[in-house]
Amino acid sequence: MYSQNYSLNSQLKIWMITLLLMIVLIILVGGLTRLTDSGLSITTWELFVGTLPPLTSDKWIEYFDLYKAIPEFKEQNFNMTLNEFKIIFWWEWAHRQLGRLIGLTVLLPMIYFTIKNGVWILREYSIIFFLVCFQGFIGWYMVSSGLVDRVDVSHYRLSLHLFIAFIILSLVFWKFLKLTNIKINQINIKLNLIKFFLLLLFLQLIIGAFVSGMDAGKIYNTWPLMGSSYFPDDSVINDLFNFTVFDDQSLVQFIHRNLAYLIVVLYFYILFFVLKNGNLNLRIPIFVIGISLIFQIVLGVLTILSGVKMLYASLHQINSILIILSTLYFLYIVKYKKTIY
Predict the structure, then answer these.
(1) ∠334-337-338 over CA atoms, to 5°?
(2) CB of 94 closer than 8 Å to CB of 53
């Protein structure tokens, strides 16, 4: 019986880590799809078709003609050639295929494990499948916002799409951790403090998506000042309390910067308690969080100073994955006991 449980546990861990790596990859590709302005290159949802790319010249022309009908081409890319269109098409096509593959990687093993081991598998893991399906719908909901009256997608829908991606990533990683034999590590620190830290990280993800979706990183390419002052030159403090604050490029970048500073301050507050506690098992995880935070700020500054150079912007997003996962790991080892099937 023990060997059977151990074997199932190993298989489930392989399933979760495979999913985790695939989700990291799709977040990376999704970020590059945004940075290359490729997200509107496929103007139809193609839920059950579109798995194969265009294989003939006529099919390429058909896709290109559909793209020519939207505002992004008419107002921004009207000089684009077919070969240039193919470049942005491939990014969006790859992003969609990864989404389909992730859906199958959730569904097929879940069916197999449920048939072999019981309905509890379905209860435990079906939420991942539903979230992946919902994410596909949100992806199209985001794309559709840029097909009629805009040259870009809604930054609100973009942030929702990224937020759900990180929710799925976090859920898969948490379930993987539950399959491990990591032991509990008591520490004299309130868990709510760590949860609040994690909440701020997710809030920063949302604001970061606003920055990306509005191209807010391409203004005020100075640091630590924004222009000639700490607060944006073209704004006033009262603007922060307007309903339109998240539609203002300058203020969104200002909020993103200062939320990063707040996160770092809170990190050092948590670090103080960890070092004071003297638990050696917790020092490496908390230092990993700290190093990734410092790296994230450096990448953020380089992204701003470079005028959003693709390399820095992409690394900035990739490193956010490390911050979230390392924080989840830290929360887990502080809170949870050994859990193994």
Answers:
(1) 125
(2) no
| Confidence band of 338 (pLDDT split at 50, 70, 90) | very low
Buried b (16+ CB within 10 A) or exposed e, 162-198: bbbbbebbbbbbbbbbbbeebeebebebeeeebeebb
2: Cβ contacts below 8 Å, ≥ 6 apart? none
- What CA–CA distance (Å, rounded) separates 163 from 141? 14
- CB neighbours of residue 74 within 10 Å: 11
Distance of CA 83 to the CA centre of its chain: 30
Render pLDDT for 198-256 as a digit per residue (tens, 0 to 9): 999 999 999 999 999 999 999 999 999 998 899 998 888 988 998 889 999 999 999 99
| Residue 238 burial (C-beta neighbours within 10 Å; 0-12, 13-18, 19+) | exposed
Alpha-carbon span 208 to 163, nearest angstrom: 10
Q: What is the pTM of this model?
A: 0.91
Query: 126-154 pLDDT, tens per residue?
Result: 999 999 999 999 999 999 998 888 888 99
Closest CA to 217 of 318, 317, 78, 91: 317
Q: How many CB atoms lie within 10 A of CB 107?
A: 15
User: Encoding tokens for residue 235?
Assistant: 């704004």
Helix (H, G, I), strand (E, B) or coil at 201: helix
Q: What is the pLDDT of residues 155-182, one digit of tens each?
A: 999 999 999 999 999 999 999 999 987 7
